[in-house]
Amino acid sequence: MTTETNDVSRKDWDTYFMDIAYMVATRSRCNRRHVGAVLVQGKKLLGTAYNGAPMGVEDCLEAGCMIVEEYELSAVEGTERMIKKERCIRTIHAEQNLLLFTDRIDREGSTVYVTDQPCWTCANMLANSGVREIVFHRPYPKDSDKVALLMQRKGIVFRRIDPYEAPAQTSRAVVL
User: Is 119 annotated as a binding residue?
Assistant: First the structure.
């Protein structure tokens, strides 16, 4: 979706929509990570979402995170080893909220801009959502390789914006 412009004061479309995703992320009340996502069809913004507890339920700032530990067998340089993952199960991810609050018809052939590379669960959901492209900024190394492979198999364009600088006061430090 990147389009060049002769006007140096005007942002390209990727930067514009990623900036919006970062602004949306400021609504998150997650202690660990602020994530925002936007759904775009052509140059039309169709929906926004951020990570957080279900509506009407205490969030992580009020009730604390609900951390669970998971272990995954992973092959690293030909050697299998167990990888420990911790995640909060109180929070609905931004991508999941985006899918919950947008219509399938709007997602067909659209692009999702998300501040962070989707986790495995969100990638699976996006793979079945009808989107044709996922653009992210911050990598998520825990699931990176298998998510990229899934997107390749599904024929979904999957790319990282780099270089990119998030708008001031929107980039929350990541605690993994």
Answer: yes
30 is in an annotated binding site: no
Residues catalogued as catalytic: 95
Query: Per residue in 87-132, pLDDT tens?
Result: 888 899 999 999 999 999 999 999 999 999 999 999 999 999 999 9
Query: Would you kindly state where each structural domain of the chain is located, as residue ranges?
Result: 13-55+92-170
Torsion angles phi and psi, residue 101, rounded to 5: -110, 15
CATH topology of domain 13-55+92-170: Cytidine Deaminase; domain 2 (3.40.140)
pTM to 2 decimal places: 0.86
122 annotated to bind ligand? yes
